[in-house]
Amino acid sequence: MKSNIEDLLNSGIKQLVPYEPGKPIEDVEKDLGIKNIIKLASNENPLGPSPKALQAIKTSLRDLNRYPDGNGSRLKECLSKEHKVNADSITLGNGSNDIIEFITRCFLSKEDNAIFSQHAFAVYPLVIQSMGAEGIEVPATNWGHDLQLMKDSINKKTRIIFIANPNNPTGTFLEKPELIKFLEEIPENILVLLDQAYFDYSNYEKEDIQLSLTESFPNLIISRTFSKAYGLAGLRIGYSVSSKKISDYFNRIRQPFNVNSLALKAAEYALKDKEHLLNSLELNKLEKEGLYKFLDSIGYESIESYANFICFDCKQNSKDLFMKLLQKGVIARPMEVYNMPNHLRVTIGLVEENKLFKDKLLSIIKE
Ligand SMILES: *Cc1c(COP(=O)(O)O)cnc(C)c1O
């Protein structure tokens, strides 16, 4: 009898289209045979990791023969002090993507559905689908979450609502009172994941929700990451804060050593290095202003962003502009997969990188 491997798959996985990350620098160098490429595609911190974090992992390299602390106690203690939340309400993840998976694995089964917004983070529909559950995509308003519509989309099968604030890829921001009102209106048996991957940027520009809000809402889970403002994307470390009951379940299903020892160490020192964080936030704010003005001057409309990137309308399919920029050594991110075919997303880089992006874009337009 012929066996067909596809027939053995769980039905959700059969239809899964993998997440497409920003193009790596090495690939572009190899494919196009060009050097000195700048990557403005994945919202990484252009200043790099905190020098203190780098120094700390250098001295712990000799311990790589040992397993990491599976509980991550030291880092949890630091996070607990920093955010004034209980250490046992914290779950550490291999990136905050790990946390997104914990939620779906704990709380979604085939019969359930989960709600997310149009033009929101592409990982939400993927994890929902991989559980064989139904994803409900709610139309966006002004490129951001429409909380009223999301609430109206709840039905008997709804288990989780995903909210990215600020949102990626659009950078839109929901004000604190609006979010709190939403949380007050949502039934307690529906979980809300508030994904604050870009919290540090938004909180620098506007008051955002603190982690201690999880104490008022037992169905609220807030996730954060060291991948963006803290500049540790390559190490893979993020975390969530939730009720102790929920973090207990997360800790049951996670792998015993899901966060590696270098990531634990680097995160601890990055958290202490406020100077590096503030420099990163200030650079981002100043350079973002410059980029808005530039894009406006060439007639491209930007979506107002509370994160470290700008998503803008290039008035034609952005694939062409993306390719031309690539050939000139600048990696941006086309937004077709987010159903925004005319938008391009660019991460705020170093002063020189942003200048190069502007110069290359101008030269393309003048061609
Ligand atoms: C980048 C990003 C994350 C973080 O991913 P990590 O796994 O922590 O690197 C989470 N959510 C959103 C919306 C993001 O853009």
Give an account of the 3D structure.
This protein is an alpha/beta fold and 367 residues long. It contains 15 helices and 13 strands. Helix 4 (51-60) packs antiparallel against helix 12, helix 5 runs parallel beside helix 12 and helix 6 runs parallel beside helix 7 (123-130). The longest helix has 24 residues, at 274-297. The structure holds pyridoxal-5'-phosphate. Pyridoxal-5'-phosphate binds at residues 43, 95-97, 121, 164, 168, 195, 197, 225, 227-228, 233, 238.
Describe the SSE topology.
Elements: H1 5-8, H2 11-14, H3 25-32, E1 38-39, H4 51-60, H5 73-83, E2 90-93, H6 96-107, E3 113-117, H7 123-130, E4 134-138, H8 147-152, E5 158-164, H9 176-185, E6 191-195, H10 199-205, E7 220-225, E8 238-241, H11 244-253, H12 261-272, H13 274-297, E9 301-302, E10 309-313, H14 318-327, E11 330-331, E12 333-334, E13 343-347, H15 351-366
Pyridoxal-5'-phosphate binds at residues 43, 95-97, 121, 164, 168, 195, 197, 225, 227-228, 233, 238.
Count of individual beta strands: 13
Gyration radius from CA atoms, angstroms: 21 Å
**Gap between N and C termini, in Å?**
61 Å
The ordered H/E elements are HHHEHHEHEHEHEHEHEEHHHEEHEEEH
Keywords:
41% helix, 15 helices, four-stranded antiparallel beta sheet, 13 strands, binds pyridoxal-5'-phosphate, alpha/beta, globular, 367 residues, seven-stranded mixed beta sheet
In short:
This protein is 41% helix and 15% strand. The protein has 367 residues and is an alpha/beta fold.
